[in-house]
Structures are given as structure tokens and as C-alpha cells.
Amino acid sequence: MEIRQLRYFVAIVDHGSLSRAALVLHVAQPALTQQLRHLEEELGVQLLHRSAQGVLSTDAGKVFYDHAQAILKQVADAKQAVTHSARPAGSVTLGLPHSVSGALALPLLTAAQQHYPDITLQLTEELTGNLAEQLKSGRVNLAVLFDDGQLTPFATTPLAEEELAYICRADGEDFKLGASVTLAQALGTKLILPGLQHGVRPRIEAVARAAGLHTGDVIEINSIAILKSAILAGMGATILPVAPLLAEIERGSMRVHSIHHPPISRTAVLCASRTIPLTNAANAISQLALQVAQELCRSGAWPGARLLG
């Protein structure tokens, strides 16, 4: 198996046809087809379905595509580490959960352009469960995850502690609640939360169990945009940090109630692989992300977040 075969395969999948991939790669289509056939023969599986309309990945092809992307990224990172050993330069991919990107993404991009113009910072917004897998495989260099006791495979640096609040539609029944609610009161309402393996949900479940409580009937939605729409449609309330819903709260369409007895929070952590070395550029972005998070907490620009320690 050769690196060029991986590059050819990824290009074919990305462009949806052999002919378009051949044009982009500046490779004759028969040669591209031959390399794909050699790759499939070596692996002993069919990677692509071919038709007059183009190509689609088989189940095996989808799995191989993820690995091929990770390998190609690590090869590119290795080249950058050698070529730019004296100064931070190259491409860095940082994964952010949906609930954090609103607070951190733009300030970090701005700071990266200002301090490291030779670094191309690529931000990807994903569910936390997906980000952990991408970090393990090397598809992203860094990721912001939440300390749920399952981060031992990663090198970790705490960024901030985020308070979770009970957030509902401003004119709903929950409007009658006081400025703060107990966790039991919050859990006793109709809640809209992410799935069990994503975002705030593991933290909510853990705190509830420790307090002898449990979540009731939950609508599971893994998209912040859809979750907002569901709250505004009166389908229920949520337990989240303030930041991802700040625009709706400031407009007055949503209302925030702090949670007590017990309060509930989560720790945002910057994570890197323990087995895949960081490039100089990735190390620089890691330090910059920590500095930006600290400044956002100090200035109050990251609502509900505070510095640790």
C-alpha cells in the first residue's frame, strides 16, 4: 500500500467520480483506475460502487476513508514538523463542540491570524463523542472535550469551568419559576438534552445519580440549532451553559434560571493525543487556545465560565 494510493482514493471519494479526481490530481484516468484496483485487491474488499453517475463508498470504503484521511494528515504533519522546525507554520485542525464554538471559535481564529500568520487554523464543529474518535485517529490535532473521567487516552489541559443553567422559553410555564431552581425541579420538567454519549448529558446524569435523582422524560437532540427551535416551539426546556443560547437570552425569547442544591458545572479541557506528536504549529495553537480562554473568562466574554485554580 502506497501513500499515493491513499491520496488517490480520498480524492475519488471527495470528488465523487474517477474522471473529476483524475483532473484534480493530474493523473490519467486509466492509471487512477489501476491504482484503485490494486488497492482493493490488496485489501481484499470493494471500496467503491461504480455507476454512470459516479462512485459511492461501500461500507468498507467508508471505514477505509476515515483511516486514509488520518494517515494523510499525519504524513502532512510530519513534513511540516521537519520543514518548519524553526518557526510555527503549517495547518492545524482543532475540534470544538457545538456548545463551546460560539464562545471560543471567533476569538481564537482572530488571535491565530494576529500572532501566527503562517499557521492555517482549521476549526471543525462536532459532537464530543465524534471529536474524541477523530482525536484518537489523528484526524484532528487538538480538541476541546469535557472531563467526564474518560479522558485518560489524551494529554489534557483544563481551559475553564462552565456553570450549567436551566434555560426555557421566556413566556412558557417555567416563566413562573424563581431566579434559581433546584436540580430536582429542573429534572422534573420536560427536558431537551443531547444524547447520552454527547455534550452535557454525561455530566448531568452523573450529578443526578450522586444526588439520588434521575432524569425523566427527555427529548434527545444533538444539534444546538434544532434544540433552540424546539425550546422556542414550547417542546421543553434544557440544561446547558449560557453561551450557546446567549443570543436568544439577550433578545428575551429565552429565560435563564441558575441551578442549586446541587449546582452543576462541567470542565472544558483542551486535549491532544498521547501517541501522535504535536507539530510546532499545533503546540503554538494549544498555548494560544489556553491564553484566549483565560482572557475570555477574565473579561466575562465567555458567559458562565470561570478560570480554574
From TrEMBL:
Key words of the record: Activator, DNA-binding, Transcription, Transcription regulation
GO molecular function, one term: DNA binding
Sequence ranges assigned to domain HTH lysR-type in this UniProt record: 1-58
Superkingdom: Bacteria
Xref: InterPro entries: LysR_HTH_N, LysR_subst-bd, WH-like_DNA-bd_sf, WH_DNA-bd_sf
Alphabetized Pfam families for the sequence: HTH_1 (PF00126), LysR_substrate (PF03466)
Record-level GO BP terms: regulation of DNA-templated transcription initiation
UniProt keyword DNA-binding, yes or no: yes
Family: Belongs to the LysR transcriptional regulatory family.
Protein name: LysR family nitrogen assimilation transcriptional regulator
